[in-house]
From TrEMBL, chains A, B:
Compositional bias (Pro residues): 758-775
Keywords: Glycosidase, Hydrolase
Residue span of region Disordered: 752-785
Domain Glycoside hydrolase family 65 C-terminal: 689-750
Domain Glycoside hydrolase family 65 central catalytic: 327-679
Family designation: Belongs to the glycosyl hydrolase 65 family.
Keyword Protein biosynthesis: no
Active site residues according to the UniProt entry: 488 (proton donor)
GO BP: carbohydrate metabolic process
Native source organism of the sequence: Planosporangium flavigriseum
Pfam family, one: Glyco_hydro_65C
InterPro entries: 6-hairpin_glycosidase_sf, 6hp_glycosidase-like_sf, Gal_mutarotase_sf_dom, GH65_N, Glyco_hydro_65_C, Glyco_hydro_65_M, Glyco_hydro_65_N, Malt_Pase/Glycosyl_Hdrlase
Name assigned to this protein: Glycosyl hydrolase
Domain called Glycoside hydrolase family 65 N-terminal: residue spans: 16-270
Length: 785, 785
């Protein structure tokens, strides 16, 4: 946990004053730059010290063994792990005869600032070498949103006093030595030096390296070029070998004289293109970047972000920490997805190797709802990626003796790579989550082409899956037995409410899509009988209810289970999965993360207000929030049932997950879904936005500390803006056609440039529910207004 | 499957005519000799060809990696695998200048006979070498029941015609090269040449080798000595190196002149004793064996077996195949256990490396019921071994946050080594199975010392486990959720009827034992409150019942599940677990092996006759018998409910499991539990013997083909003999006190030497239940009378 005030709360920046080597890995994640295609961890320019060096390209991975103590049918034979590709961030500095290394000499000042508006990471440092020579160093790094293959660094060094000999080495380094992450020697063998050299070349200030992975057959090109500015004479040399390219600049600078280098980087990869094609590709990207120039890249970056923030920004009054956190969150969600372009959005984005770089249901259930209303092109691209993986998902379904498509629980390429099936393959709800995301995107954007080409087939194939996964009991009831819902402290349960309700939406969505596009549906083999079967399954879907307790069991029998002994669970025994066997967790009433409560939010149309209040009150004391996916959902539902202070506490936790390292693993990469969850907590929670059923409704209501909440959503291509104060909400529309909306259940039509304002009705919640002892939500630091 | 008539049906032998190299591995298992301490696979004397060379010592194993694709709390960090120790069976023969190898030259005849009365394996062969020289070879091999550390081989070779140069090499060979069994290079590394040399010595005709395992620290000594008989001159030399000792005998024999060698072997191992102690131990055992001499060992072996058969034999009229099979079964059960002496009885005995040499619940649930009534000292020893492992089981219980002792699902040393917890650790019923075996042993033998020193603590610790594993719901009901019953096609279910009923017996058994031995119970910390809690848990134990269908669900909700699609399951898709995911098997009505039906047998006192008939009829069409543990139990219950032909068909399958290689894996070792099951099917099935509730009852009834069934059981040290014919049953008692018995529910007192005869009442079963298509029970070959 980051226990020092690392990142002061600024509205549009995340900054770090000083350099605490104990949280180096965490800061590398927080300061990671990415455009969804390239990801650079926030490693220091000079490479060392580091928590974990990291340069990632979306979908560049290596296979590794996936061993089983006892093998089973259908277990994935091998795993996939994101790999650290050629590091182009390196700019090493020699001051007189001593390398700049913050661990030696004296670091007189060190500041890093991530600018959320500019999309750059700025660093300044003043350092005195062990022999007493002082230099001022500054660097600015960007990964371009507008040129997908491009990153760039502007680096400057100035002697503080006295003339100094300065040597800069700007490098490309492949197969960096990494800290060990596994004790399996076969995996280590596969992941140590995973890249085989194929080509290297250097001339003038330019070099490139081409490598390929051993097993997965990914060919990777990395190239660099430089412009150098210096009032003094600079000697330049370049050299290159299989795994290293190095430009060396040597000069003598007077006090205050700057040596300034702009390093342009480009990356490309392919599983099909030849060595010449890849090297040409990265050289071309480099040529474009050089032609654009540093200032041009900076300006393009700012324009891209100005456009994004215009539609996406959430503005708060009353909580500077959350204000900063939600902008950081939106920035990172964009970084994870903006240029992913039909590649997955991994759980950690491209900020670290956590979860092997895999994508999960997080994408569709947490990230896409935010992207759909803020950067819909990126949401569409992510679903187009899923669509491209339908052949693998169909094959998996056949392997599982099911119809349709069974999308993987975790993957890079679209093939199932989960090594523990009860909390992997059995979590079939991911298929309904994908369908839900497709339904939402079509509804929010009105994108008919997407609906026809992508959405329809996703819905049809997943509906077919549900049709074969469940069955009608003799009395008609449609049951889905033996699957795992979102809560990973319960597995292989019968008729999980979330799963069944989401499957119901999936089936109905498929029916509607097939009726919208009858010709395309017919091409997919859909006929009237199939549509009727989907309708019947949806209509007769079982939603278990515990009449005695007056609540919905998370799954059949759940509320009959023994309650977890929270009283005798020590605080250092969380997360529970590290201290108790799955066996014990699965069979007791203890909830890792919102599951039934997630259903209350995602399928709010299926519950009455009273049911929501009772269900929420029942599950709060059982939910330990050992997953970063929980707090935001609990925030949403706490707000809906009127526990605004509780909702606010959950919001704080969700928003500050990574900035305060609340899950103790930010060093492995950011929690992109939890970051998206900060947006969900604000917009769906305090904004009360709901989008089920073809329209948008709001039920805004602020917690005490927040005096104003302003957010926008993109709806049918228009910007719909909501300003909430404690007493009222004002809705306005940027242009286009009038929109039918609801405010706390009251329907109204919003017309362009005709804002309307409604008062916010009061709510009387029941007693505030308690949480398991020690698991009350909260931020680390006192809130500052 | 052995599809040639390999083993003609003889009542007291299992013989093989000719040598089919395609079933070599199977015959090595069938002809394995063991006394429970040493196990020698039936490899040819000359070592090659072989299916799998095997020499095992009970509990000599090596650790190996137990890898997990995704790790979890409480997963065993390493596995244990039985290892092939020093091979002392080798006697190689050179005829003129050509090695005797059945793959070359001409094998004019080859016969092997396992004598179930003599306890030896006899082999005769006539072979003509590629250059035309013929020899007659005979060998007799035994593993001594009376001298635990000893095996011996009498080997003789005679030229058929013309004088021949003959060389015999008698060897000890350590670290034999084995066929690969795993693709994990770490496991291969651990198990290739697992024995490190420590000492070797040879003089005269005697040699020994001492080795130790790398990780598990087992020190192993193997020694050999020889006597040589030959009318011609024999030159003798002996040599020895780290992994090999070799006695070489060279002679020239005239036609018909024999060279006869008796090879005495001894083995010893320890995890504590020093090199000198181990070498002395094996030399001493060897000295005793030599002093006893070959004829003496043979005579002792016969006496030991005569004594065993007097109490254990089952005599049949009407089915020669089953007659042979049940004697083979009883012989192998004895071989697996006779001298195990507080070491485990592995699932494969010491006949092969299957299941890594682990012991499972098979021991207590299948093997011990047979041993209790035929060789009670061996049953007691097996339970004493469990008792010795209580510290490990207590530690495991604590790790699982449970009270008492949690015995391992699979193990060699007593520590859990299961790598798949849903079908391993979660199968807690093994604890009740151990308790059940202890209750049965005390009841059958009246062994008070065992009861006090072993049984009590086993019962108390397992009762404590159940007490913490289950809980009383608000209405009092005692529930055991989230555990796995015997059926491995269902896992993590709630209130498995078998588990709950066996736990109930366990709890009540603990109450009674604590009351029998109040002082010892107090020493174990048992007080009145604890006893009362056990009684209450037993009294309020939930036994689910499906009122609508009028049957017991195997576990709660089971009968509500979708039925497996047997109709579209191809015959080559069995066993199902190799062709379908656990996910699908677990959530449907498909049963791998008797589970509820096992409860009907083991806890028959908890069901009415009508319930048994209905339940049996319900589960037959769902049970695919993909486990070798099923047929015998289905036989017992089919007999009880009156489906005698069906019971007879199941008996045939259980009895011929290994002789006909019905499970296609006899080559890895015999199915000791299924072999014991042949006894169970005859004695509990057609003999109708039941032993719940402190007394013994019989309800014999023969199927058409059987005209007489005679068996004995040892009860309170006396031999109780039952002779069943189609019309009547005669009971007689060898001596001792009168015994209270029941015949088809009619109570009577049986006095020594006062046989009584009762008629057998008729039974009218309902319609014969069907099995899943293609899974009807049956033997491979037509039955011969």
């Amino acid at each position: 946990m980051i226990t020092h005030p690392a990142y002061p709360s600024e509205p549009w920046t995340v900054g770090e004053k000083g350099l605490d080597l104990n949280v180096l890995a965490q800061s590398e994640s927080v300061f990671a730059l990415s455009n969804g295609h390239i990801g650079l961890r926030g490693n220091l320019d000079e490479g060392e010290p580091h928590g974990l060096p990291g340069t990632y390209l979306n979908s560049v991975f290596e296979f590794r063994p996936l061993p089983y103590a006892e093998a089973g049918y259908g277990y994935p034979p091998s795993g996939q792990t994101v790999i650290n590709v050629t590091n182009g961030k390196l700019i090493r500095l020699l001051v007189e005869d001593e390398p700049f290394d913050v661990r030696y000499g004296e670091l007189r000042s060190h500041n890093r600032v991530l600018s959320l508006r500019d999309g750059v990471l700025r660093r300044t440092a003043e350092w005195t070498s062990p022999s007493g020579h002082s230099v001022h160093i500054s660097s600015t790094r960007l990964v371009s949103f507008t040129q997908r293959a491009t990153a760039a660094i502007a680096y400057e060094v100035r002697p503080v006093d006295g003339p100094l000999h300065i040597v800069l080495q700007s490098e490309l380094v492949t197969n960096e030595q990494l800290p060990p992450t596994t004790d399996d020697p076969r995996a280590t063998a596969a992941l140590t030096a995973p890249l085989q050299p194929e080509q290297h070349s250097a001339h003038d200030a330019r070099a490139h390296l081409v490598h390929t992975t051993r097993l997965s057959g990914r060919r990777i090109g990395a190239a660099m070029d430089h412009t150098v500015h210096c009032p003094a004479d600079v000697q330049t040399s370049i050299e290159c070998s299989e795994d290293t390219a190095r430009l060396t600049l040597t000069t003598q600078l007077a006090a205050g004289q700057p040596l300034r280098v702009v390093k342009f980087l480009s990356y490309g990869w392919s599983s099909q293109r030849s060595i010449p094609a890849i090297s040409a590709q990265v050289e071309a990207a480099l040529a474009l970047a050089c032609a654009t120039g540093w200032e041009g890249l900076l300006a393009d970056q700012r324009r891209y972000l100005d456009d994004y923030w215009a539609g996406a920004d959430v503005d708060l009054e009353g909580d500077a920490e959350v204000q900063q956190a939600v902008r950081f969150a939106l920035f990172q969600v964009l970084q994870a997805s903006a240029r992913a372009e039909r590649r997955p959005i991994p759980a950690k984005g491209l900020t670290g190797p956590g979860y092997d770089g895999h994508a999960f249901w997080d994408t569709e259930s947490y990230v896409l709802p935010a992207l759909t209303y803020t950067a819909p092109h990126a949401a569409a691209d992510a679903l187009r990626w899923r669509h491209l993986t339908i052949p693998a998902a169909r094959k998996r379904a056949r392997e599982l003796t099911l119809d349709g498509a069974a999308f993987p629980w975790r993957t890079i390429t679209g093939e199932e790579r989960s090594g523990y099936w009860p909390a992997g393959t059995a979590a079939f709800h991911i298929n309904a989550d994908i369908a839900d995301a497709a339904i939402r995107l079509v509804q929010a954007t009105g994108d008919e082409e997407f609906d026809r080409e992508v959405g329809l087939e996703l819905l049809v194939e997943t509906a077919r899956l549900w049709s074969s996964l469940g069955f009608h009991r003799r009395d008609g009831q449609f049951r889905i037995d033996g699957v795992t819902g979102p809560d990973e402290y319960t597995a292989l349960c019968d008729n999980n409410v979330y799963t069944n309700l989401m499957a119901q939406r999936n089936l109905r969505g498929a029916v509607e899509a097939a009726k919208r596009h009858p010709d395309q549906a017919a091409e997919l083999g859909v006929d009237d009988d199939e549509i009727a079967a989907w309708e019947r399954a949806a209509d007769e879907m079982l939603v278990p209810y515990d009449v005695g307790r007056g609540v919905h069991p998370q799954a059949e029998r759940f509320t009959d289970y023994e309650c977890w002994d929270f009283e005798h669970t020590r605080r250092d025994q969380y997360p529970l999965l590290l201290h108790f066997p799955y066996f014990d967790l699965y069979r007791k009433q203890v909830v890792k993360q919102a599951d039934l409560v997630l259903a209350l939010y995602k399928r709010g149309d299926a519950f009455t207000a009273e049911e929501k209040a009772r269900d929420f009150a029942y599950y709060e004391p059982l939910t330990v929030r050992d997953s970063s996916l929980s707090a935001c959902i609990q925030s949403v539902m706490a707000a809906e049932v009127g526990h605004l202070d509780l909702a606010y506490a959950y919001l704080g936790e969700a928003a500050r997950m990574d900035l305060d390292d609340l899950a103790h693993n930010t060093g492995d990469g950011l929690h992109i879904a939890s970051l998206a969850g900060a947006w969900i907590a604000l917009v769906a929670g305090f904004g009360g936005m709901r989008d089920s059923g073809g329209s948008v409704a709001f039920a805004p209501r602020l917690p005490g500390p927040l005096t104003r909440l302003t957010f926008s959503v993109l709806w049918q291509g228009q910007r719909l803006c909501v300003v909430v104060t404690p007493a009222q909400a004002t809705y306005s529309l940027g242009g286009g056609d009038p929109v039918e909306l609801a405010h706390h259940g009251r329907l109204f039509t919003l017309r362009p440039d005709r804002p309307v304002t409604y008062p916010i009705p009061p709510i009387e919640p029941g007693p505030r529910p308690s949480q398991p002892p020690g698991r009350e939500p909260g931020r680390l630091r006192p809130r500052r207004a």
